[in-house]
Each structure stands twice: as structure tokens, then as C-alpha cells.
Amino acid sequence: MEHIRTTKVEQVKLLDRFATNNKSLTGTLYLTATHLLFIDSLQKETWILHHHIASVEKLALTTSGCPLVIQCKNFRIVHFIVPRERDCHDIYNSLLQLSKQAKYEDLYAFSYNPKQNDSERLQGWQLIDLAEEYKRMGVPNSHWELSDANQEYKICETYPRELYVPWTAKKTVIVGSSKFRSKGRFPVLSYYHQDKKAAICRCSQPLSGFSARCMEDERLLEAISKANPVNCYMYVVDTRPKLNAMANRAAGKGYENEDNYSSIRFQFVGIENIHVMRSSLQKLLEVNGTKGLSVNDFYSGLESSGWLRHIKAVMDAAIFLARAIMVENASVLVHCSDGWDRTSQVCSLGSLLLDSYYRTIRGFMVLIEKDWISFGHKFSERCGHLDGDPKEVSPVFTQFLECVWHLTEQFPQAFEFNEAFLLQIHEHIHSCQFGNFLGNCQKEREELKFWRNMYHQFDQTLHPRQSVFNIIMNMNEQNKQLEKDIKDLESKIKQRKNKQTDDILTKELLHSVHPESPTLKTSLCFKEQTRLPVNDSLRTIEGSSPADNRYSEYAEEFSKSEPAVVSLEYGVARMTC
Amino acid sequence: MEFAELIKTPRVDNVVLHRPFYPAVEGTLCLTGHHLILSSRQDNTEELWLLHSNIDAIDKRFVGSLGTVIIKCKDFRIIQLDIPGMEECLNIASSIEALSTLDSITLMYPFFYRPMFEVIEDGWHSFLPEQEFKLYSSATSQWRLSYVNKEFAVCPTYPPIVIVPESIDDETLRKVATFRHGGRFPVLSYYHQKSKRVIMRSGQPLTGTNGRRCKEDEKLINATLRAGSRGYIIDTRSLNVAQQARAKGGGFEQEAHYPQWRRIHKSIERYHILQESLIKLVEACNDQTHNMDRWLSKLEASNWLTHIKEILTAACLVAQCIDREEASVLIHGTEGTDSTLQVTSLAQIILEPRSRTIRGFEALIEREWLQAGHPFQQRCAQSAYCNTKQKWEAPVFLLFLDCVWQILRQFPCSFEFNENFLIMLFEHAYASQFGTFLGNSESERCKLKLQQKTMSLWSWVNQPSKLSKYTNPLFEANNLVIWPSVAPQSLLLWEGIFLRWNRSSKYLDEAYEEMVNIIEYNKELQAKVNILRRQLAELETEDEMQESP
């Protein structure tokens, strides 16, 4: 609270991000302990959680006031104009401090999860029992066992306590191997494919330098390889580009030498590091924020950002994994540098392709818990929760979600969850049935799309104005309600009928049967129920009502005295976006 | 029979067919006058039944005595035939080449096609101009039907019946026709009932370098304005191009002579630029080897989506003028048969709810494309694989359909038809058993006697059994103007056309089916609930009557 100096500023303008002539909404800005709130003259509220804020920027003073640009981690960008510079400065300072104030508990509530019931959700996550999950995969079994080596986090701090390793691997081997691996992250089981008896394992890079060897590490890899009775070789996948891995050798790290390890096949898959990813996303956002973007600018910007190339690299690696297991029956060991970014991406996506369970809502949460949280993905640093090194921030998890989104686009029926779930890792939303998903051998095509709903989540006018998905979901809900109604009605009718037969029986004893036919009256008093509305708000067309305020702005454009050539390019683009 | 001369080898056994999404199949290849048929003679099914007119280009390859013919279709599909024997292969290839490039329209399949279905409604008479005019005449008396072009004497590319301002007589129209490119004097394209404003279209004015003027032309278009109001002239060329056109006798309306009109230039590309764009796009889509960056830069270099954006932007501008500015609009480019029609028809999709229904859309195509004289024969003779560059090729109609698809994607509940309907129209525009898209104008169609000699596409499509495939289950009529977003982030590549043969749509189809099921089930449940409610109400009243006799 001590950071907040001004709690309320009036006459603040909210600029339209894509407008060219500074079209704005005027309203009041409130600052609370957790949120920034803007209420415009139409009483529309915009809530921004403080630790969603990625950056706050104060631009140069203009005639209308002091501009304040807030960029959020969920890709919302708001542009306020505060009339008095002093107020602006107060808010700016407050936000700077408030936005970096998140506590450790907020780790789980990563940036897509803006709801208030953090504690409830925290419980939800803790309900997920990973031991249960490994049991579901079919471990421990005759090849894999639970190791107590890391019981007190002694061997590796960033690993969970329960780790699964081949039963042939003795503790000395594990300890030895962990000394040979960066941050002590020795090879452990991530996913076990029961039918193929093949495993996805993960670790960090070996401290091999140019020539160092470690007998225990070699033995551990051999044990993993042997734990797969079907196939005599295993893949070791280094997710880094070869050049990066070679550079690491100079620092005493590096990658496995195929000659030292029996029965491994070594493979680079070339996913770039967190710094490249961060600047790639930055470029992407710059392109998206451009006013009056042309199609060519958009595509060349998309291309030069390299974002989709990186997404594809991650997908390709995951497909490589799935293929190795499904087609070749071979186990795979995945590592990058520390084994918590790219390795998490690739292992979790690979598992998702292989196992339909992870494509359910619960399964997806388990997957995140297993491959991301328990194996120490640095959510806090990567998402910039705490005021830390900005160089540690990177959209690694965003990329993972985007990869999953691409899969949901291509296999809409294979996932229990939908885009909204991904966008917010949100509440349970019922989705289509599980299809016959053949992720294991599906080769991705190159034509990845731009995920508009992620990067323009808050630019409503760029979306399809009617969401098929919401309508269908709504209808699905309605169907359930209708099924219930039918049951109710049927039981009521049954009751009535029983009652009637009873009545008739008793009446028959007293009088003769009633001569009048009741149907005439019925038809009069009964008014047919019209079709239930499928939540009309879903079908309304935003920006299409005649009261659309953008009209006036366009009219100005028309009435201007103009040169012979009139470019209304932006006019229409603005009118619509 | 003339075809027999062209068919050098009518039948080859043991031909192996490779096509997208199916395993290779061996069978007997037969060539008929209009079809390429391959049958494996199992279950009496034909694996391939391809119209020669659908073939865009063919390649031949030989490995030893095994020949391979690669057939590239106008709908962008590529199939491969392995034909044993060099001579057979050469014969087949040259026969196909000859049959797919017949000179005479009257030799085309529509003249030989006999329908296997009962014609309930003759599509040739489904959308008569008189009927269309009735829709307007109830709302306004400012317009009339003119038969001035009855013998196609005034304008060869116009239909015999056009809608013109009530106050303008046929003599004036004849004079105006001499002042407009191709005799295309301004005619009514659309009357907007709400704002009582109109969209008109024409060819460019023939002002030439010395600024010729035509009083009758000014009178005609001024007759559509109310006293004191202004109108807009949308020229679909850039100012530069329009100025250059003066040297060739064309030009644009001078402000001095048309003081009530404001001219706006919205550049839309035409002819070979569009064709090259299509060729590049299809090439990029078919290239399986490239990486992500190459794909994006190829997509960009094709400029296809830029054209989409330009066309949609121009259409939005026109809709703005009508709906928001309440001003009438005259649209023309050079001839007024390509970009002009794209803009007028898309503006109607945005403004007019009727044009978003199946019948309304068919009427729109009939009125704004076929009757308005879009030269389908010239524009759709070849597609993306064609090697010989012809001056008149351009995917103008495909671009229009793509634009409709973009709007359909943004407003999935506002259209009575679905994506399949648009794909079907694309296919029939390029190769069809029906006569609808033959010829370049109404006069050519009349000379060919298409109405008597061929079947209309609309007769076939409008059968209830066919329509079900093209109906959008989400459709709910709305009377609103739908403003699409034209931001690059909102425009997508039309996968249903361009990636159709590269990426299986199996999973998307399954999802679509699931959606249809949910909607069907919803309807069923609602009907059931209504029946039960009625039953319950009946029982209740029965009870009441018995309780209070």
C-alpha cells in the first residue's frame, strides 16, 4: 500500500491502439493494491492485474497530457493519457513497484491465469499426485524403479524428490552421473510408453568438455537403453543448435561423444536459446503493434521475427521423439543446457503427441505439473514474477502453449480443452469428444499460422466477430439442460398420468365418464414454447451497430478537403480494426 | 465423331494412379471425348473420373519403357499416371493435351451432358432481371427497366435488360454508351433500401487527352442524386493508371464537369499481375521442402493476401459511403468487368442480408458476374499451372470467392451457405458439366443457345438433396451490416482451396461433423421438450376440468 500515492485520477484518456487520429475513450483510472482499473464513460471496465504488467513507459509530454503506455504479459497494450504530469508520474512509480512485487506463491499463477482464486487453484494443482501419474504410465515395473537418491534434494535441488530410474542403475551410478551433469540433473524418466516399452528421459548437458568421460554416466545411459527390451539402441537428443553445443564444450560442458557411449544415436535438433526466443517475441509484438500494417509488412515482419520458425523447431523435435518411440520403439534421452527449458518443451510436447491422456483437461494439468513444475522450469524467472534479471525472462512456456494450440487447430477433436483453456489455463470447459488421434506419425506441414487470439487477445476487432466455438459450447451446455428438462417433464407427466388414472378410477365409481372433451380448451391455453435462445450475446456482431462510435471519426475523414488522391486505406482499416 | 480423331489410344491396361490422400491403385485407363477414366474394375467403381476441361497442364517423364504423365488440374490437384509402354504414354499425353484445349465452345462437355436428375426448377429462369427488379420497384419509383440493349447493339457485354434512372430515356442511354468504355453506360447495381442510396457501375469515361465531356452522361448520373446531396465515384485504378488511360482514349471524370461527385481512387490489381500472384501462391503451397521462413516469404511474395486486402478495403469503403455517409456510389475501373464487379458484389455481401443466403448469393453471381459481363471464358480458361501465358487469364472470380470466404470466416453465423459452396463455385467456374459459366457475356451465351442446349448449374445445385451439403448449420439470419476486419492479422490463407490437396482435412471434417451433430441434437431435444410441455399442459387442463366440473 505504501507504494500507492494516487488512488484515483479523473479525465484519463484511453487511446485506441490502432487508431490513426488519436481516437480515445475518457474515463477514470483507479489504482488498487492488486489491480489497475479503468472505467470509461460507457461504464466499461478494464482490469489489469499488477503482476501482469510487463513494462510501464512514460512518453514525452504532449499538449493533451502525459502519455503512459503499459504492456502486459498477456499481450495487452494500453495507452493512457493522464492530464497532469504529476499524477502520471505517481502512477508510473507506483506501478513500477507494484508490478514487481509478486510473492513466491504466485509462481503457479503464471501470467495466463488472472483470476482471483489463486489459493483455490493452488490447491487444485497440489491435488495432482505425480506418483499416481507414473503408476498410470506403468512404472515402477520390472525395468524402472523409484529412486530415493534425491529424497532430501541432496543430489539435485531442481529435481523432484521422487525420481524414476532403471532398476539396474545403482545409487553410486546415479551420484556419479549427477556429478558429470550440469546442475546435477542426471538422466531420469519423464514418460514411459507402456506398449512400446520405450521411455522419454531427460537430463542436462554432460560436463564433457573436449574429452572428459564418466563411467557412471555411461553406465546409466546403458541402463536406460537396456531398460527397453525391444530395441538395442537409444537416441540422445540435444535440443540445441550444434554450434551452441560446441561452444559449450569450451566451458567444460558439451554433449555426448558417440564413441564413449555404447548403443546411442546422437542427434541435434536446433532449438534456439531463451535469449533468441525473447527477442524473437519482442520483434513479433512490434510488428503486431504497428498501425496501418500492410499485408507484406506483416508477413515480412512475421518472417524476420523468426517466431514461427522457432515454434516449428520445437514441434519438429517433439515429432522426432514421438516417431522414435512409435515407429522405432527406441527410448530417447533429451537434454539442452540445463534441461529445464527446451527439454521441458520437447518432453511435454512429445508426451502429448504420444498419449491421449495428456490431451484431456486433467491430463494436461498433470503434464504441466510433471514436465514443467516438478522438473524445475524457472517459471518465476522466465515470466519475470520477481524483480530479477530481465535476461532470464523468456517466453518458453508461451511457446509450449502455442505449439499445443497448433495441434488443436490441426486436430480439433483430439483435445478435451480448447483455445480459451490454453489462453488462460482457465476453468474446465467441456469440449468435443476424443478423436482417433494419430499424433505419433503425423508429419507437420510448414504452414503454421499466426496465433491471432494469443497476441491480439484484447484487440477485439481483430477477431472473428462470431465465435463458432462459443456457440457450439453453449449449445452443448444447453443440450445438457434440455436433457434434464426432458427427464423432469417425463416424470411429471408420469405422475400426472398415474394420478389421473387413480382419479378416473375413483370417479368412475361415482359418476359416469365426463362427456366433455378437454382438448379444445387445451389448445387455447397452451402456448407453444418458442425455441430457447442460444445466448444471443454470442451472435451479436460487434462494431456493426449503427451506433458505432467509429462512424464520426470516419466522417471527418470524408469531410476533409483533400488532394486529388485520397488514401482511405487506414480509414477502413481503422473502422474495422 | 470428331473426338475419335483426337483419341489416339482409347484404352490402356495396368496403369497406376497416384493421387493425394489415397494409396496408388492399378487399373484400366479409358479416354472418352470429355473424360479421363481410370477403373480398377473392383466393385465396379471408378477411381478417377476427370473432365478434360479440368486439366490445366500435363508433364511427361520416361524411365525406360515406363512412362509417367503428371496431370495438373485447374482445381490445383496434381495426379500422376504410370503408363506402361512409351507409345501408349505418348498417345495418351497428346490426346489429353488436344482434348483439354478444344477450340470450340460447342464441343465442350456441357453441350453433351445429359442430367441424371429430374429438373424441378430450371436454373436458366431462376433469376430473371424482371424478378430482381420487382424487389426494388416496390421500394422506389426512381428506376426503370430499359430494353435499349435488346439486340446487344448498344453494349455487347451488357444483358438485354438493364436498370436505369426513370428520368433517362433510351436515346440518352445510347449517347452515354458512346462515351463509356465498351458502351458500358452507368447502370444500377444495387439499391440500399435503408439509406435509399445506390451502387452503380460502368466502364471508364472516354475523355481522352483533350478532356472530352458528355452532357448526357453527367445528366444520367446526376439523376441518381437528390438535390444538394453528393455522390462518390470510386475508380478502381490508381490516379496514375487512370491518367495514363487518357492517352488511350480512356480517362476519368473531371471534377469541373461532375461537381456533385467526389472521386476516390482505390487501386486494385488486374490481369497478369493477379495471374502471377496465383501461380506463385500455388507454387508455394505445393512446395513440400521449404522451411518456415521460406514459406512465409513465399506467401508474402505471392501478394495474394495483399490483393484480398485491397479488394475488401475498396468494398468496405463503398459500403461505408452507402450505409454511413448515405451517399450514392458509381464504381468503374477500365472496362468495368473485373475489379468493378468484385467491389460491387462484395459491397452487397456486406450491406445486404439477402445476398448472404444461398439463393441471394446465386442471384448476386447471376446479376453481378454473369449478366454484368465478366468474361469467364477468357479469365478461367487456364489456372495456376498453365505454361503458356495468355493475356486474358486472371483469377478475378477466385479472388472474389476468397474475399467472401474471409468475411464468412469472420461472421460464421451470418451466411446461409458454407465453405463447400464457395469451393463448388470455384470448381464449376473453371470446369463444369453445366453451361452457366460458359461464354464471356450474355450476348455470347445467347448466340451459343446455352439455355436450350445445356443445363444450368442452378438447376442442379438447388435440389434439396444437393443443398444440404452446402448449407451452413450455424446460419441465423440477421439484418445487420457486417463490417469485416481487413487487418493483415485477420486475413488468412484459404486452406480449403490452396492446401486442399496437400493437407488432409480429415480431422477438420470430423470436427465439422461433430458440430453438425451437436446442432441436430439440440434441435431434436428442443422439439421433444416442446412436445412434452404440450402434453403436460394438456394433462394439467384435463385435471383442472375434472376437478372443477
TrEMBL record, chain A:
<dbReference type="InterPro" id="IPR048994">
    <property type="entry name" value="PH-GRAM_MTMR6-9"/>
</dbReference>
<dbReference type="GO" id="GO:0106018">
    <property type="term" value="F:phosphatidylinositol-3,5-bisphosphate phosphatase activity"/>
</dbReference>
<dbReference type="GO" id="GO:0046856">
    <property type="term" value="P:phosphatidylinositol dephosphorylation"/>
</dbReference>
<keyword id="KW-0443">Lipid metabolism</keyword>
<keyword id="KW-0378">Hydrolase</keyword>
<dbReference type="InterPro" id="IPR011993">
    <property type="entry name" value="PH-like_dom_sf"/>
</dbReference>
<feature type="domain" description="Myotubularin phosphatase">
    <location>
        <begin position="124"/>
        <end position="531"/>
    </location>
</feature>
<feature type="binding site">
    <location>
        <begin position="273"/>
        <end position="274"/>
    </location>
    <ligand>
        <name>substrate</name>
    </ligand>
</feature>
<feature type="active site" description="Phosphocysteine intermediate">
    <location>
        <position position="336"/>
    </location>
</feature>
<dbReference type="InterPro" id="IPR016130">
    <property type="entry name" value="Tyr_Pase_AS"/>
</dbReference>
<dbReference type="InterPro" id="IPR010569">
    <property type="entry name" value="Myotubularin-like_Pase_dom"/>
</dbReference>
<protein>
    <submittedName>
        <fullName>Myotubularin related protein 6</fullName>
    </submittedName>
</protein>
<keyword id="KW-0175">Coiled coil</keyword>
<dbReference type="InterPro" id="IPR030564">
    <property type="entry name" value="Myotubularin"/>
</dbReference>
<dbReference type="Pfam" id="PF06602">
    <property type="entry name" value="Myotub-related"/>
</dbReference>
<dbReference type="GO" id="GO:0005635">
    <property type="term" value="C:nuclear envelope"/>
</dbReference>
<dbReference type="Pfam" id="PF21098">
    <property type="entry name" value="PH-GRAM_MTMR6-like"/>
</dbReference>
<feature type="binding site">
    <location>
        <begin position="336"/>
        <end position="342"/>
    </location>
    <ligand>
        <name>substrate</name>
    </ligand>
</feature>
<dbReference type="GO" id="GO:0005737">
    <property type="term" value="C:cytoplasm"/>
</dbReference>
<dbReference type="InterPro" id="IPR029021">
    <property type="entry name" value="Prot-tyrosine_phosphatase-like"/>
</dbReference>
<feature type="coiled-coil region">
    <location>
        <begin position="472"/>
        <end position="499"/>
    </location>
</feature>
<dbReference type="GO" id="GO:0004438">
    <property type="term" value="F:phosphatidylinositol-3-phosphate phosphatase activity"/>
</dbReference>
From TrEMBL, chain B:
<dbReference type="GO" id="GO:0005829">
    <property type="term" value="C:cytosol"/>
</dbReference>
<dbReference type="InterPro" id="IPR030564">
    <property type="entry name" value="Myotubularin"/>
</dbReference>
<keyword id="KW-0175">Coiled coil</keyword>
<dbReference type="InterPro" id="IPR048994">
    <property type="entry name" value="PH-GRAM_MTMR6-9"/>
</dbReference>
<dbReference type="GO" id="GO:0048471">
    <property type="term" value="C:perinuclear region of cytoplasm"/>
</dbReference>
<comment type="similarity">
    <text>Belongs to the protein-tyrosine phosphatase family. Non-receptor class myotubularin subfamily.</text>
</comment>
<dbReference type="GO" id="GO:0010507">
    <property type="term" value="P:negative regulation of autophagy"/>
</dbReference>
<keyword id="KW-1003">Cell membrane</keyword>
<keyword id="KW-0007">Acetylation</keyword>
<keyword id="KW-0472">Membrane</keyword>
<dbReference type="GO" id="GO:0032587">
    <property type="term" value="C:ruffle membrane"/>
</dbReference>
<keyword id="KW-0963">Cytoplasm</keyword>
<dbReference type="GO" id="GO:0019903">
    <property type="term" value="F:protein phosphatase binding"/>
</dbReference>
<dbReference type="InterPro" id="IPR010569">
    <property type="entry name" value="Myotubularin-like_Pase_dom"/>
</dbReference>
<dbReference type="GO" id="GO:0046856">
    <property type="term" value="P:phosphatidylinositol dephosphorylation"/>
</dbReference>
<dbReference type="Pfam" id="PF21098">
    <property type="entry name" value="PH-GRAM_MTMR6-like"/>
</dbReference>
<keyword id="KW-0256">Endoplasmic reticulum</keyword>
<dbReference type="Pfam" id="PF06602">
    <property type="entry name" value="Myotub-related"/>
</dbReference>
<feature type="domain" description="Myotubularin phosphatase">
    <location>
        <begin position="123"/>
        <end position="498"/>
    </location>
</feature>
<protein>
    <recommendedName>
        <fullName>Myotubularin-related protein 9</fullName>
    </recommendedName>
</protein>
<feature type="coiled-coil region">
    <location>
        <begin position="508"/>
        <end position="542"/>
    </location>
</feature>
<dbReference type="InterPro" id="IPR029021">
    <property type="entry name" value="Prot-tyrosine_phosphatase-like"/>
</dbReference>
